[in-house]
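=== RUN LOG ===
request id: a7f3
mode: sequence -> structure
chains: 1
length: 200
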Amino acid sequence: MKYAIIGFGPVGQALARMFARKGIEVVVATTRAPDAIAAQAAAIGTGIIPEPLGDAVQADVILLAVPFPAHPEVAKAAPDWQGKTIIDVTNAYAVPPEDLGQLPSSAVIAKAFVGAQLVKAFNHLPAKILDQDPAVAGGRRVAFLAGDEDGATDAVAALVEQLGYAPVKLGALAEGGMLVQARGTSWAPLIFQDLFKKEG
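=== RESULT ===
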């Protein structure tokens, strides 16, 4: 299984540290050349591999950590997204709902990545929290998931577990997914909720 993080700002780097903590290799890419992020990637760990965007999008599972308006450009990087899973880490804050056709922002992204299965995850916490080890005081930090395909959501939940988080499934994008999506200049109820699941 090949993983890629597209976007290497504070959130993308925090995601890369998640993979590095668990020794899981992950490709990282932006719309710039790999050399532009090579030093930052090397500082995180040897398993964080910069690649050109066109190569990174060949991964099986892609964590989309770019600003929401940048997603159409990323979507053009592959002719076909069939068989891939997109983990949507974006937030469409300050994007008017009418610009989204009143759809959840994740549904708009899903339309751009034709053929892919999309799961919303890791977007409800800021980078400074995602940067921290999710194991705290006998428990694990919660990661909310929402998606329309059960198989994809289950697969992402397994990755979330592997990365040390406790996955909490919210249901479909248009239902539970709305609990973790910005609408205009309002944040949904579960955004910024830093919750923990006790073990045992």
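=== NOTES ===
The chain is about 30% helix and 20% strand.
The helical segments are 10-21, 35-44, 53-56, 71-75, 105-112, 127-130, 150-162.
=== END ===
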